UniProtKB/TrEMBL annotation:
Domain FAD-dependent oxidoreductase 2 FAD-binding: residue ranges: 17-386
Pfam families according to UniProt: FAD_binding_2 (PF00890), Succ_DH_flav_C (PF02910)
Biological process per Gene Ontology, one example term: 'de novo' NAD+ biosynthetic process from L-aspartate
Name of the molecule in the record: L-aspartate oxidase
Residues in Fumarate reductase/succinate dehydrogenase flavoprotein-like C-terminal domain copies: 464-499
Enzyme Commission identifier(s): 1.4.3.16
Organism expressing this protein natively: Hoyosella subflava (strain DSM 45089 / JCM 17490 / NBRC 109087 / DQS3-9A1) (Amycolicicoccus subflavus)
Location of this chain's protein in the cell: Cytoplasm
Keyword set, alphabetical order: FAD, Flavoprotein, Oxidoreductase, Pyridine nucleotide biosynthesis
Length: 525
């Protein structure tokens, strides 16, 4: 149930050193590190434990720890840059990839168990990677194991379940706390000098997504309303191989790249190879594969292509989660082709931060999919997201210690005012974004979407719908500006990459309107 906004004053107040908004891998990692440093931490999450994108993650964690002689951080860096479409921040990538091994050690110390063999941790290779550096848990249940371990490690933290943060307090240019509301509409205030946004992604902007129902772009919308800068929001990664269902909508399971890494092949409805035009084949980066699938679907007038995994011996043992998901659809991967199609999966952009998670507002941090550190650039390399969440989560938890004891300015809670105009139901918004701001875009569709958003407002009173509406407006504005094809942003009317556009576009909210800030391009690799 989505909380409804309203004008009621707060019914309770609390105080903390830091408020963590979200309880997936990024939020709980930051919370545990801060708590270990002696900070008073309050975690706010919209649902009970486990309803996170982390828990759904089938893929693993890409990490270089010296156990593979032919691999190195520079090689991992090169793969990350190759996938990132010219917008990877070199400093952020170096820091995050270098600190990955230590972050995994900490995660294992907190109770996470990864798959092992006679020679140590088992490793696979996924799309865009030049080496077998991906570690997994439970075969294809890595996220579920990480979430389990972090939930257990966090049992002594103060956690508010079924609460939405509806506003970030800012006074004298610094964070003062958050306003929250529960499912009954009761409101509360948490006073804190530091707020960490770890709310996950934006998948519920689209009709079909791998994301859970909680992925309603809350972090980006909260940051924009607080005055923070977001960037790279036009870069939305569509996972190439979501399990297709003729009646499927909403959250759908994905078929991990690891299946292709172990020999699975993509073929169209006529049995022809889908990615034969790329030397990397089915292990090309996600944007390349998703674009190839979308193009072939259009050429063959088909709703999907197929993943042929029949050559993989012991499929059910290697991929137990995927085997179970397929069985529910009446598919046996050992004898049947698996129907797949692209779906909204990961947001490469987000709140603009440094590698410590610090945003443009003192006291406001972001981490995980909510943040944009620069690691992913225009397109995320497979299995780099969990790595980033762990590494930057640790760094955020350490960095917020510096704000302990700061005086908090008084915060006068503002009343919520409903926007005027006709409403835009979520299902209509999702259909519009899927059709006009999906895998392939053009000015005709984007301008139509912009006009629709300008002429309507989100469902009145439903806070999450308002977050989706605001974030959609930012995405459409950035996608219209980027008149080129780069990474996960594909323009049918501008099919080539423009060197003049090799920059990230800062976006802010000014007088209630989305503003694309004009800044000089920063160095990218």
């Amino acid at each position: 149930m989505s909380p409804r906004t309203g004008g009621a004053r707060s019914e309770w107040e609390r105080h903390a050193d830091v408020v963590i908004v979200g309880a997936g891998i990024a939020g709980l990692t930051a919370a545990l590190r801060a708590h270990a440093r002696g900070l008073k931490v309050i975690v706010v999450r919209k649902a009970a434990h486990g309803d996170t994108a982390t828990a759904l993650a089938q893929g693993g964690v890409a990490v270089v720890d010296g156990s593979v002689p032919s691999d190195s951080v520079p090689r991992h860096f090169g793969d990350t840059v190759a996938a990132g479409g010219g917008l990877v921040d070199g400093h952020a990538a170096t820091v995050i990839l270098t600190e990955g091994a230590e972050a995994i050690r900490r995660l294992r110390a907190r109770g996470a168990h990864f798959d092992e063999g006679p020679d140590g941790l088992l490793r696979t290779r996924e799309g865009g990677h030049s080496e077998r550096r991906i570690i997994h848990a439970g075969g294809d249940a890595t996220g579920a194991e990480i979430q389990r371990a972090l939930n257990h490690a966090s049992r002594r933290l103060t956690v508010l379940d079924h609460h939405n943060v509806v506003a970030i307090g800012v006074a004298a240019g610094e964070v003062t706390g958050v306003s929250v509301v529960d499912t009954t509409g009761a409101r509360g205030l948490i006073h804190a000098s530091t707020v960490v946004l770890a709310t996950g992604g934006i998948g519920q902007l689209y009709a079909v997504t791998t994301n859970p129902g909680s992925a309603t772009a809350d972090g980006i919308a909260l940051a924009l309303r607080a005055g923070a800068t977001v960037t790279d929001v036009e870069f939305i990664q569509f996972h190439p191989t979501m399990l297709y269902s003729p009646t499927g909508s909403g959250t759908r399971p994905l078929i991990s790249e690891a299946v292709r890494g172990e020999g699975g092949r993509l073929v169209d409805i006529d049995g022809r190879a889908v990615t034969d035009g790329d030397p990397r084949g089915d292990l090309a980066p996600r944007d390349v594969v998703a674009r190839a699938i979308a193009t072939r679907m259009r050429e063959t007038d088909a709703a999907h292509v197929y993943l042929d995994a029949r050559s993989i011996n012991g499929f059910a043992q290697r991929f137990p989660t995927i085997a179970t998901l397929c069985a529910r659809e009446g598919i046996d991967p050992q004898s049947d082709l698996i129907p797949v199609a692209p779906g909204a999966h990961y947001h490469c952009g987000g709140v603009m931060t440094d590698v410590n998670g610090a945003s443009s507002i003192p006291g406001l941090y972001a981490v995980g999919e909510t943040a944009r550190t620069g690691l992913h650039g225009a397109n995320r390399l497979a299995s780099n997201s969990l790595l980033e969440a762990i590494v930057v989560g640790e760094r955020v938890g350490a960095a917020v210690v510096s704000r302990v004891g700061r005086a908090i300015s008084s915060w006068v809670e503002t009343q919520w005012s409903e926007p005027a105009g006709s409403t835009l139901p979520r299902v209509v918004l999702q259909r519009m974004m899927s059709q006009q701001a999906g895998v392939v875009r053009d000015e005709t569709g984007l301008s139509c979407a912009a006009n629709t958003l300008a002429d309507a407002v989100a469902s009145q009173g439903v806070y999450e719908d308002q977050n989706l509406h605001l974030t959609a407006s930012a995405i459409i504005a950035a996608a219209r500006w980027r008149r080129e094809t780069r990474g996960s942003h594909t323009r049918r009317d501008f099919p080539y990459t423009d060197p003049e556009c090799a920059r990230s576009i800062p976006i802010s909210l000014r007088d209630g309107m989305i503003s694309l800030d004009s800044l000089e391009a920063t160095a990218r690799v």
